[in-house]
Amino acid sequence: MENKDICVMGLGYIGLPTAAMFAKNGHKVLGVDVKQEAVDLLNKGEIHIEEVGLGEMVKEVVSIDNLVAATKPSFAETFIIAVPTPFNDDYSANLDYVVSATKSIIPYTKKGNVVIVESTIPPRTIDDVIVPLFEEKGLEVGKDVYLAHCPERVLPGRILTELVENTRIVGGYNEISASKAADVYRTFVTGDILETTAISAEMSKLLENTYRDVNIALANELAKVSEKIGVNALEVIELANHHPRVNLHQPGPGVGGHCLAVDPYFIIEKAPEETKLISNARKINNSMPSFVVEQVEKLLGDREAKLTVLGLSYKGNIDDVRESPAMEIVNLLQEKKYNLSFYDPHVKQAQVKIPLAGTLEDAISEADCVLVLTDHDEFKSLKEEKLKSHLKKNCVVLDTRNCLNISVSDIKYYNYSNLYQLNRENKVLVP
């Protein structure tokens, strides 16, 4: 295989858009993934994940041979590592994929190459884990090869836009490494490119998502308090956010995805005694699936009543079910033996082990209760008349995303504005 400008290790939700973007901007790119199916699809100009505009971009760059895929790396000028970083049973970071990807590129690394780790990693991973791998092979990092950490900072559904427009943080092992890596991104990034140290870049990415996780935990705790004492949590948040220095997030069924639900643990593992706030925020957000199921039990007294779950991905308009609170809620409902139906217009059957309804109409037909767990646009635009025509009379809707617009008298609608009414009624609504 001919030498490439860039070799991207990992063709998932970050690696594939990154590879496609470099290819779109004139680079010859090799994308590497261990999954043969993903490689085969990509080489046909097709994609295995859902992201706005990505399919069209991949088809274009593959057709002009700017992007090819393989299961093994090859020689390149720049290597970008964008593999997942899962966590272990104790919530510490599992760096096996990052280490494996790094080891796999070392035989193809030449003096003058740039190596960039985009994978989310705990602080000091570049210095303590990645650097020794190169030194073992006789390569001096910062002189022979230029090593940096450049964390991704994109929003699913807007990845191709934000790859270009967002500020990029480039943390080098040394100053020249940061400078060399920053030049790689200047190919297409129009946002600012901030050069710093590797450890500052590692920590900044984790802290960005930890801030959001803590903010959501505050909103979720408010939802629990409001349910107990009889307060409209959504109204309280709206009123509080009129303060010029307050920006509360919205409560929901929990926190998912491979960033907010994972990154805080990578800080906690480095300083467990100093991260009480971060740890408590994680516990609050992890408790929300059980809280949602408790509300379902107040609504449904009959396990044979049909309960339709709308949405399985961790956020709206994407197909990503990683760490999704919806999947945790589904597991809890299955344990309680509810009569369940599932529908998600973005998630494919191959991604989950539960049977998905083919259409929304099939899913909600004759349902006694509808549980909304993801705020897809398809649900936000759902017409009351359509719901009413398919659901049983006196059906109950529990909207944990506060995204539906329902007012018909035949449907009892609950979200975080009126959960306290379930306690006041003190009875199940569907016997």
Automatic annotation (TrEMBL):
Gene Ontology molecular function: NAD binding; oxidoreductase activity, acting on the CH-CH group of donors, NAD or NADP as acceptor; oxidoreductase activity, acting on the CH-OH group of donors, NAD or NADP as acceptor
Domain UDP-glucose/GDP-mannose dehydrogenase C-terminal: 308-406
InterPro entries to which the protein is assigned, alphabetical: 6-PGluconate_DH-like_C_sf (IPR008927), NAD(P)-bd_dom_sf (IPR036291), UDP-Glc/GDP-Man (IPR017476), UDP-Glc/GDP-Man_DH_C (IPR014027), UDP-Glc/GDP-Man_DH_C_sf (IPR036220), UDP-Glc/GDP-Man_DH_dimer (IPR014026), UDP-Glc/GDP-Man_DH_N (IPR001732), UDP_ManNAc/GlcNAc_DH (IPR028359)
Gene Ontology biological process: polysaccharide biosynthetic process
Span of the signal peptide: none
Keywords: NAD, Oxidoreductase
Family: Belongs to the UDP-glucose/GDP-mannose dehydrogenase family.
Name of the protein described by the UniProt record: Nucleotide sugar dehydrogenase
Organism per entry: Halobacillus trueperi
Lineage, highest ranks first: Bacteria, Bacillati, Bacillota, Bacilli, Bacillales
